[in-house]
Amino acid sequence: MSWHVAEDDLRAYVRGELAPPALWSADTHLAACAECRAVLNEVGDPVALDEGWERLDAELDAPRPGFVESLLVRIGVADHTARLLAATPVLRLSWLGAVAAVLVMTVLAANSVRASETPTLFLALAPLLPLAGVALSYGPALDPTYEMTVVAPMHGFRLLLIRTVAVLAVGLGLNGLATLALPSYGLRALAWLLPALALTATGLALAPRLGPVLAPGLVAGVWVAVLVIAEAQTEGTLAPYTVAGQGVAAVVAAFAAGLLYLSRDRFDSTSAHTPFAGFQDGGAA
Amino acid sequence: MTDLPTPPTVSAAGLTLRYGSTAALDDVSLRLGAGVTGLLGPNGAGKTTLLRVLATAVPADRGAFTVLGHDPNTTAGRQNVRRALGYLPQTPGFHPDFTAFAFVDYVAILKEMTNRAARHREVRRVLDEVGLGDVRGKRIRRLSGGMRQRVALAAALVGGPGFLVLDEPTVGLDPEQRMRFRELIASAGEGRTVLLSTHQTEDVAMLCHRVIVMAGGVVRFEGTPAELTARADGRVWSSTERDPGARAGWRTGTGSFRNVGDPPEGATLVEPTLEDGYLLTLDASDAASASSSEVTA
Q: What single Pfam family name could you report for this chain, choosing any that match (chain B) (predicted)?
């Protein structure tokens, strides 16, 4: 053995306080290292040690987590949150690869056809990708375990937020990398950020009323219509990318976030009547 | 309706839910106690809707119910109902890339079990309980239909729920798997309330201490399997030809016909089964609906 588990870590292990990924390393190492097991016997009381062996037994039986889940734990995400995120379809490598491919093509097009002062095609597309990612991360049509999820005691809105934050972080990160590939536009290439937040928040806020497919679809349609109208009426920078347009996007994002918060209980059940009718305290909805 | 042998753990009154002009549930009231209660009924009877309402997946338009003393119409009460609930939906969905262990672990996290060591012990316990301890590391997409159904049952059992809702868990299973599943459900019913929706009267005969029959969104019978069977006392007879006056009749393996309905004078009566009682209950429902339609018309 080239290394051994530190004594402090072994004490934490016995107390059940050692967190992943150090816990996983200790589990694997202890199974193979008689020397560390001997130290473990010395540092722990017998009762706690029995519990530790039982835990080790359970851990060795547990299958190793997948790539995304391991990565999330290594960057500090709690293991139970990482498992919830691993069940989010749009965080799989295949979806992320498709998003990256779309962005690369858009950046290439923006760089090769530089007809205006702003990368219009990129700015039109970039806000739609986080919206699509969030829309595809929840809902009865897209989550195979939706019915089990909705009757679980974990609040549906909390799960939605966990997935939304993760998908937004990944989506905005990819968009940000794509922006770096458009250096000649400077900060103007970042004008997608506020519209992206506004579209995503509006899509989520409308989902309880219109459903998880129609709501983001409608929001995407309105965004495209706004761009087409702006293109037809303006010669220079399109309205959504002006200072006034960015201000409107910020206000819409804040308003939609408030509306989403007020609708949070509607993500807590399904209904035959509306996509997320929800329960209302004091009586059936 | 006979009294429950134990105090009710689940009580519902006046549950009504409409899909457009169709009443999926029409003023449904019932009481469940500890043990396995079977929910029988034809397709479209409202069984799945009732189970989804009691599992808090969908709110009823009208009516109220309590589970283990908790009222799901308040936020806190609903959380408590969900903490006490194990739910196996009619078509359980899976994340196919998950292993059996990872999937049950995922459901355990949704059930607020955040302590990793305790959660993994519990996941291992329920997988062992349903006989999947040896394949816990296998991906779900590589498991057979019967094994997937057992993974879903393990997910329902994780956390030791006091109220288990199982929607047609034996559909699509071969006879051996069905028998294995019955053993599991019988074991799960010890000390907890289980509501089992099924098309199979054998499931009810072998497993259930109570039975509810639904048709057209209405509860048509609530009692013991013996009481449902007793509805067919003196109303099942055998004959060499199909009796045209019978409500239902079919040729048996011995070549004679088994008839259910109002027997003619001198008919050779035979011992009724639970299925006979069930058929006659549904038939009475149809007759009542027809007569009601005639009155309305």
A: ABC_tran
Predicted ipTM > 0.90: no
Is there a contact between A201 and A260 (Cβ–Cβ < 8 Å)?
yes
- Phi-psi domain of A243 (left: phi exceeds 0; alpha: psi -120 through 50; beta: other): alpha
Chains A, B: CB contacts under 8 A, how many? 135
Question: By three-state DSSP, how is residue B222 classified?
Answer: strand
Residues of chain B in contact with residue A62, where contact means CB-CB under 8 angstroms, are: 101, 105, 120, 123
Count, in order, helices (H) and strands (E) of chain B. 9, 13
Q: Which residue has the higher pLDDT, B5 or B232?
A: B232
**CB pair distance less than 8 Å for A153 and B55:** no
Angle at A248 between CA A247 and CA A253, to 5 degrees: 100
For residues A30 and A35, what is the distance between their CA atoms, to the nearest angstrom?
Answer: 9
Q: Are A269 and A277 in contact (CB under 8 A)?
A: yes
- The number of residues in chain B equals 297
As a dihedral over the C-alpha atoms of residue B281, residue B286, residue B292, residue B297, rounded to 10 degrees, the angle is 180
- Domains in chain B, please, with CATH? 10-223 (3.40.50.300), 229-296 (no CATH)
The Cα B205–Cα B200 span in angstroms is 9
Domain residue limits, chain A: 7-62, 89-268
Chain B nearest C-alpha distance from A176 (Å): 30
Q: Does A83 touch chain B (CB under 8 A)?
A: yes
pLDDT tens per residue, range B191-225: 899 999 998 898 899 999 999 999 999 999 999 99
* CB contacts, 8 Å: B62 with chain A: 284
* Predicted confidence band of residue A115 (pLDDT cuts 50, 70, 90): low
Closest residue to B109, CB basis, from A62, A83, A285 = A83
Query: Would you say B94 and B148 are in contact if contact means Cβ atoms under 8 Å apart?
Result: yes
Q: Using one digit for the tens of pLDDT, what is the confidence trace for A229-253?
A: 887 877 777 788 888 888 999 999 9
